[in-house]
Specification:
Blueprint (H helix, E strand, L loop, with lengths): L1 H11 L3 H14 L13 H5 L2 H24 L6 H13 L1 H10 L7 H24 L7 H28 L1
Length: 170
């Protein structure tokens, strides 16, 4: 159906913006179903495709960037605002976001619901991780908190990606 639509519109030589807008409206109305002609068959193939996992790589990169900023920038005065912003995103958004991605199907929540739940779940998960760290020999210090939040965020992100692959393959 999509190929027929594209051929029809190319013959009429519409302007590209009108063409894309009509295509989008047909997709929203359910008149047009867009499917991948070659979906990934295995999880390694799925995880390497950016068209399925851009959120995955963004979450992992934000986590790694925050870790590097915390440990490698140190206390350089003019770079401290970057550290504060990235630390806030790392503590108050990423753990909840990765958990939301693991719990819900894609498209089940609106972006505003995802944002609110991500912040809310981060506000719930981060203190629980801190409480668990309090009863370990490492205690509540910078390095154990960064490592624990990183492990939680990355593991939930991998779990969410695997779950999405399983939903796609069924």
């Amino acid at each position: 159906m999509l190929e027929d639509f594209v051929v029809e519109k190319e013959l009429k030589s519409w302007r590209k913006l009108n063409y894309l807008w009509e295509l989008y409206n047909k997709w929203i109305d359910g008149e047009l179903v867009i499917e991948d002609p070659d979906p990934p068959k295995a999880f390694p193939d799925y995880i390497t495709r950016l068209d399925y996992n851009l959120w995955f790589y963004t979450t992992i990169m934000l986590t790694l960037i925050t870790i590097s900023i915390v440990y490698f920038i140190g206390y350089v005065p003019f770079l401290m605002p970057i550290r504060y912003v990235m630390g806030t995103v790392f503590v108050l958004f990423l753990p909840g976001y990765s958990l939301i991605q693991a719990l819900y199907k894609p498209g089940e929540l609106s972006p505003l619901e995802e944002l609110a739940l991500s912040i809310g779940l981060s506000l719930a998960v981060t203190p629980l991780i801190g409480l668990a760290l309090n009863y370990t020999p490492w205690g509540i210090r910078l390095t154990p908190i960064v490592i624990a939040l990183s492990i939680f965020t990355i593991s939930m992100t991998i779990l969410a990606s695997y779950r999405r692959f399983k939903l796609l393959s069924h």
